[in-house]
Amino acid sequence: MTLSVVIPCYNAAKTIGEQLDALADQHWSGAWEIIVANNRSTDASVAVVERYQKWLSNLRIVDASARQGQPYALNTGARAAVGESLVFCDADDVVGAGWLAAMGDALAKHEFVAGRFDTERLNVPWIHQSRANIQKDGLSQYRYPPYLPHSGGGAIGVRRALHQIVGGFDESLPILHDTDFCWRLQLAGVTLHFVPEAVVHVRYRDSLRDIYRQARNYAEYNVLLYKRYRALGMPQLTLATSVDAWRKCARKLRRIRSREDLGRSVWDLGWRIGRLQGSIKHRVLAL
To answer: How far apart are CA 174 and CA 111, in angstroms?
Structure first.
């Protein structure tokens, strides 16, 4: 088994060094490489990665500047890879000790795997306490409405042949292409296996403005996925369910007592606004 670690990179000069330090400390019995797919970075990202090439002989930089967007960078990195299996991680996260071995060993047994998230190491207390870690003890569960499990893109591993068969990540989805990728593979009959030993330390947005913006964007594209997957077994949302969700959001806004409460409420408000915008944009009732 050979392994290719693919990192999409856009203006990650402040964080990618920490990720590469973590990868430099990884050990595994098989052959492996690191591919950084540079997606039109305008900061010092490339210079930072080039410095690491001096002592990481298995580190390559590939040009992913033809099109802006993380899914394009991921697919470009995958096309340049030589490994039998691909593992994806983000430039602003940090893989934990033993991550590579855990992912490599899992992919020797399974075709499609996902690691575990830790949200405490890279985030101040009020940030990680205001966001639920939905991939701490198992795969991320999709609950609105209930559907197939999935994984964040920075924790996914897959056999290269499967990645090619399904056409890689959907480049029309700048957000939630990872969720869509997980669902397409599962609907094709491939099981997604959870690997608790493969820990990824995740970095959250750390300002209220960025928290709101991320929640709004995620919610809008959740609506698009809802529209796409209703014909593939996703249950239909009812107006009553949507109204109840808005009521819960309003109650949270009235009960803010701490910075953690504020962070949760800002996320929830962004989520509800994003679903409203998505429903209007994609002409589907999914508030």
So the answer is: 25
CB 182 within 8 A of CB 150: yes
In this prediction, residues 68-97 reach a mean pLDDT of 98
Whether 41 contacts 11, CB under 8 Å: yes
User: Which CATH architecture does the domain made up of 2-201 adopt?
Assistant: Alpha-Beta Complex (3.90)
Supply the pTM of this predicted model: 0.96
What are 263-272's pLDDT values in tens digits? 999 999 999 9
Confidence of residue 242 (pLDDT cuts 50, 70, 90): confident
Q: Per the structure block, which two tokens stand in for 96?
A: 């934990």
Residue with tokens 């030589």: 82
Residues of the chain with CATH 3.90.550.10: 2-201
Strand blocks (E) in the chain = 2-9, 31-38, 59-63, 85-88, 94-95, 112-118, 156-159, 193-201
